[in-house]
Amino acid sequence: MSPSSSTTPTWHQFERKVEEVKPSKTDINYLVMDYLITNGYPAAAKKFAVEANIQPRADVELIQERVEIRTAIHSGNIQLAIEKINELNPQILDEDAPLHFALLRLQLVELIRSCTTSSDGDISPALEFATSQLAPRAPTNPQFLEDLERTLTLLIFPTDNLSPSLAHLLHPDLRKDIANRVNEAILLNQGARKEARLRNLVKLRAWAEQKAREAKKDLPEKLDLGLGDNPNTHNSNPLASSTSASHNGSNDTVMTNNGDVDPMIS
């Protein structure tokens, strides 16, 4: 494309500079591979490694432990998730009291969900769990006490008439949030980065763009992320393609919103 006529939109100077420093396809492929491994998509990582003709920089099989823990949390089986975390390394929860409490509170939420929807409406299992597991921990942190009190409020009001702050506790997004925190804690415990390089780059880019606009720099109205060869080509984004492949016929369990690619980079 060239600014050869008045009817053809001229290339913005910034866009020309971006083209001059465009990353190589190999660099992008390794960023995508790093994202798939960090966020726990073993089947997609294997498939993408073959299609991109690159070698994973980590043992893909080691991802499976995180996948199983994530799957347990997403399905509401928090006790199983806690057991698997402790089997992996008990220090993960022993050294992270807020995460341990968040998991236990989520387990209480699941118990309340089960109790309030059962035929007999017996809430004693939820109360016993709150008394034995959360009540002793609540006084150690004001936020713990507030979270426990708010969660127990679910036993009072009908689930179809909850305030937004209470309805959030029963929304699947809470499971996803806790699963993400657990994934990050495991990665840090294993000496890895808790967040994929791609997300860090996107955050840095967003920050730089914000600062440039605040400084009234001359930028295009919209900046394309540029992960694909052609932004107008369907599924040109290699991350979208690899995770879509993962969702079709694999046993990867998504940890993003509604099964889609991470909204930060899609």
Automatic annotation (TrEMBL):
Pfam families assigned to the protein according to its UniProt record, in alphabetical order: CTLH (PF10607), LisH (PF08513)
Biased composition (Basic and acidic residues): 213-224
PROSITE patterns: CTLH (PS50897), LISH (PS50896)
Name of the protein in question: Protein FYV10
Primary role: Involved in the proteasome-dependent degradation of fructose-1,6-bisphosphatase.
Highest taxon in the source lineage: Eukaryota
Stretches the record annotates as Disordered: 213-266
InterPro entries hit by this protein: CRA_dom, CTLH/CRA, CTLH_C, LisH, Ubq-SigPath_Reg
Organism expressing this protein natively: Aspergillus brasiliensis (strain CBS 101740 / IMI 381727 / IBT 21946)
Residue ranges of domain CTLH in the record: 63-119
Polar residues bias spans: 230-259
